Prior knowledge:
The structure holds two protein chains of two kinds. In chain A, the strands form eleven sheets. In chain A, strands 22, 24, 26, 28, 33, 36, 37 and 38 form an eight-stranded antiparallel β-sheet that branches. In chain A, strands 10, 13, 15, 17, 19, 20 and 21 form a seven-stranded mixed β-sheet that branches. In chain A, strands 12, 23, 25, 27, 29 and 30 form a six-stranded mixed β-sheet that branches. In chain A, strand 3 (57-59) and strand 4 form a beta hairpin. Chain A is built from 34 helices and 49 strands. The radius of gyration of chain A is 58 Å and the shape is elongated. In chain A, 34% of the residues lie in helices and 26% in strands. Chain A has five domains: 1-84 and 150-335, no CATH class; 585-624 and 632-791, Immunoglobulins (Immunoglobulin-like, Sandwich), CATH 2.60.40.10; 798-938, Immunoglobulins (Immunoglobulin-like), CATH 2.60.40; 941-1109, Immunoglobulin-like; 1116-1288, Immunoglobulins (Immunoglobulin-like).
Amino acid sequence: MATMDPLMTPLGQMLLEEITPVVMLISTPSVEEASRKNGLSFLQMLTPFCSFDNIDVPVRTASDQPYRLHKFKLRLFYASDVRRPDLKEAKEQLKQVISEAGEKEFPDSNSDLPEINLELSSSSEYENTPSWFRFLNKELVRVASFSDHEAFDHPVICLLAVSSKDEQPINRFVDFFNTNKLPSLLNDGSMDPKISKHYLLVHDNQDGPADRANKILTEMRSTFGSGDCSLLCINSSLEAPFKHQDNPWASYITNSSSSPTQDVGCFLNMDDIDEIKVLMQDLSSKHIIPNMEQTIRILNQQVSATRKGFRNQIKNLWWRKGKEDGADSLNGPVYNFNSIESQIRVLGDYAFMLRDYELALSNYRLISTDYKIDKAWKRYAGVQEMMGLTYFILDQSRKEAEYCMENAFNTYLKLGSLGQLNATRCGLWWIEMLKARDQYKEAATVYFRICGEDILHSAVMLEQASYCYLLSKPSMLRKYGFHLVLSGEQYKKCDQIKHAIRTYRCALSVFKGTTWNYINDHVHFHIGQWYASLGMYDVAVKHMTEILCCSHQSKTTQELFLGDFLHIVEKTGRTFEVTKLQLPVINISTLRVIYEDHRTFGSPSAANIREALWHSLEEEMLPSFSAAKTNWLELQSKLILKKHSQNVCVAGEAVKVTIEFKNPLQISIPISSVTLVCKYSASTDEVISNENESSMEKDNKVDHFRNMSSDNSSFMVSEVDFLLGGGETTMIQLSATPREEGTLEIIGVRWKLSGTIVGFYNFEMGQPKKNILKRRKTKHLPNEKFKFMVIKSIPKLQGSIHPLPGKAYAGDLRQLVLELRNPSEFPVKNLKMKISHPRFLIIGKQENMMSEFPACLRKKTDSVQSVMHDNPNITTDTVFLFPEGTSVQGETPFLWPLWFRAAVPGDISLCMSIYYEIGDVSSIIKYRTLRLHYNVQVLPSLDVSFQICPFRSRLEEFLVRLDVVNKTSSESFQVCQLSSVGHQWEISLVEAPDSIFPLQSLMAGQAISCFFTLKKSSRLSTFGDDVSTSPVKSDARLVPESIKDIVYDVNSAPLVNFHHYERLQQEVSYKGDLNTVDFVLIYRPFRSSDDPGFSTSSSVMSHHACHFSTASTGPISWLVDGPQTMHHDFSASFCEINMKMHIHNSSGATTFVRIDTLDSAGNSGQINNVNVVQSATTDNQAGWHDIAPVNELKVASNALETQPGKALSLESASSYIWSGSSSTHLHIEAMSSVEIPLQICVFSPGTYDLSNYVLNWKLPSNGQGDSDEKRQHSGQCQGYKYYLTVLQSI
Amino acid sequence: MATTACFIIVSRNDIPIYEAEVGVAAKREDAAQLHQFILHAALDIVQDLAWTTSAMYLKSVDRFNELMVSVYVTAGHTRLMLLHDSRNDDGIKSFFQEVHELYIKVICFFFLAHPNNMFHIYHFITFSVSYVAFS
């Protein structure tokens, strides 16, 4: 590109066309008349012959170097047109051109978006940009012509044409040069009025032979000189209109649409044309070019004389400096045509036109500084402009060329409105210059700068700028898009809607697929609006639908978008159907299809439970298929076909689809007629139906959406209307109910927005992955998951549990009823049931139906027997089989009791599944399951904790502390009874119930503690053998005896079952401890709550606390038995005291125990021991622990003080010695006690702490040792404090 | 004091992942789309310019009338772009650097926490932009 001849570039060609000598034409009316016969003005007739591709004229300008001109062109103007063009007229014309182009280029609304073809764009600019740009640019350049500040528009010759018909032709020639007829530019002195003239006599051959004309010509020659006169004969074609093969005028008169081009020049034959050609050639080569040469030489001499040379330069500078003060107008001083400045400019321009660019440039340079000093800015800019062009053509300095152009452009702009037109022209040339050098990006910025006040021009310029960005390398598509949008906006401002749409559509191809949401909204919205204003509503709607989902926009914009959209749709006058309606947004990931084959759901919530959960629940109940396996090959295929290939639903039972609708906008939108779109075919054979439909499916997919309402006798669909508020999300359940056997396919959903626009959503298209209940299937053909095989109606069980509370306090115990109905005529049988949370819900017995609820828990004296038989029942944690022969049919419901207990606080999801078989075996489905699901919210009620501590004074007896805190906010409870479960323990209250509960109730937030004595029952070993002996008091009533109330039997039916599950739940890792105790605390709401959420019928609540170990330090417990106070006469002898130690082994194995007695010598008193004891019982630190009996001690020491000389303190503890064996070894059998004698010797009176012994115990580590590693096998226990006071006997 | 400013983070595949109007000037109705248009178009300039320099801060790369676009290109070719109408090169540079730091933290955090979830980035950057007071 760089090596390209500048003259061959578009700009070079343009300059060769535009900057050429001007011929001023003056003609008489009769000349015009003669030429008018051909449909042409005289000027038009001559014009095609004014440009010469190879004129081949030798030229010798100032530099004395001859060269030949080849391409040459003349511009012809009527004298009346030698003036500034009328701006208004030109604008009107431009506007018309643009409008016409708009009509022509307006894209077909159905056509796709224009693709940006980068390959193509790189090839050539002119193929890609609209052709009317060039015309427009030319016009804009033309508008700036005949300015007084430049000379290349000065006529170089005047062509005077007089017809041979005219009277006194010689006089007419003279008359032409009456000054008042000449253009004002010549008269006001900006142009040289002394133009050389050429006299032309025009003869119309239709008027007769040319005799008269020849006569006049000789006359003319004698008057004006022979060289300057010529004769032109036209209209020689006398007969039929002459048909030109290649009409030379055709390309010149296209814009004047007066006559069809074929008739143009119809009376001009080849001779005439040749004559015109010769005339113009002679005029150019013999007159114009030599004339200009002459002028250049003369002017050059003048300029050299006055301006060249050092002296002249100094003089010029001096002279100009002096002149500076005077001229102060905006335009600088006025220069006459004969001023030296004007002459230099003329010299430059003539040289330019004759292509002596070096000469032109030197003159431009010369004058440029002058104008600058004179502050003649317009002239300065004009010269700079020409300098830039000259530099370009000389291909010398690119930088210089650009600098000059920019300088000129800026200077023109500074002039404001005066220079606007010139600025535009200068800018266009500059742009061409940049384009010629592939600087498209820079060219685009210049286009952007050209944009002036005229909006229409700006629009065109911006559009051209956008093409420049497209053509730049690498192409700047985003800039292209942006400028197209800018241009479109300008077009819109001057009502060029079609152009606006065109540019926006082009821009759309750039922005398509981007996530720049504001941009997309803007473009689509405006295209939509504009199409609507043209009445093309269909396309408008298409664009408007793109912007409906505009959650990022402000509320007002959203209202505007939606309002406009609805308005346009309204104008279409029909309910519009859109396949991709974005409003509301359908959250396809929430799509769930709920259908009932062999699984049926009791409530919608049951369907929402994970299938895996149901599956694990039902696993045991369902008949196993693997058992029936006969031939693995056959079976496999059958199974797959039967179970896995197609979804099955039952006629008359609805297939439900839940899907989420979301309104992304801040304004509410009304949605109506939301229905499923389904397809039904009577054939159940999958293969056939597929074949039939697959061919037409693709074409008619949308049709299915359309005419769905026509044929729906074989299935029913539900219809939903709702209003989606701003930002709302709603879950919608839709259903389709098939009525007959066949195949039902759910295709999608359709809805109406604002009652006018129908939207469709095809599930298969938007489904990213299957989200359907049947999870076992790993692979699904896409169209199969919404396809159902409809089978004939089979019975379906309906079930409910009532009255299951929604809310309950923890511990609440209730009797519920399971009610099953079978509305169909066929019976169902073999009912089985399983419950997910037996801790909360257990199945009762038929006879429980009859019994009254709280009363049936009453403890009866003879209940012990039955309890023992209940126990085996509760261990079965599997499927509950309804009694043989149970069959549900018809109107009468089948009832069965259930027990509910709110075991722990929290949200509990209870699932139960009921299996049943269908009596009618002809169906594909042999059995069904009814799945029930309930949510119960359990609130905390009482917080109960127990603390067990052995009595030091008695073996096998414990003190139990019960802490109860009421955790509710308003409820009061009455604590009724505490029972220990089983028959090993006796429990009794330490103090009277009245003192514990003065108000008989526990208020909200209240906490109490009470103490019980727990005693091991004496007949523990006879457990289960003979139980009918005296009843064990395993219940402690916490209500005063005065209140007549029942004692609840914790060993009776529901309580003991629940207790069983609680035991399982609270199971500790340390099993095998036989000394655990389980408590059941029974309480009830004291008065009925105001909260309506709670049922008031409940009156019993229970708390189960299990596995409280009584042995806190190890498997052994012991007791030191001996005197507390002794009197001894120490003067006689030392004192020997005998004591006993009872050791009990509460473990289930023989324990090896060693008792080590430590002498107090070397043991620094009791303090250490106290510490040891404390640390040994750290478990009890928070609760209660051993405290030395201080009071006793004080009494003792007081007693001691009364005795003079025998002061004794604990610190100076007098020693004693264990006088028995220092170490005793023994084996204690499981669950047995041993008694060991101990003896100490005391040497002086005092109080002694006999805790200086250690019990080491060890369990055999064989057998069970492996099973639970954590269990302790051996341990050491420090001795208890045991204070002995020995007094001196008197 | 900036009168108009629009901050945007554009991911390497030209998706705007964060947008904020941070100017104090009264909002014009069409401001949002105009800002997007300018910033979107400026990506063309950035695409050329980013490879000509090793600096991350590209200064003011483009302008439209009074609005200038300053760009900061991270190593991962995420572009932090600020549209503004007053010159304050140093302030903008330090703003970009701070945002970049926060951006990296957020990316790292969410890359570790939720490799597939870039949503929360919004909340973090909203915080950061309000935190780094742009003057």
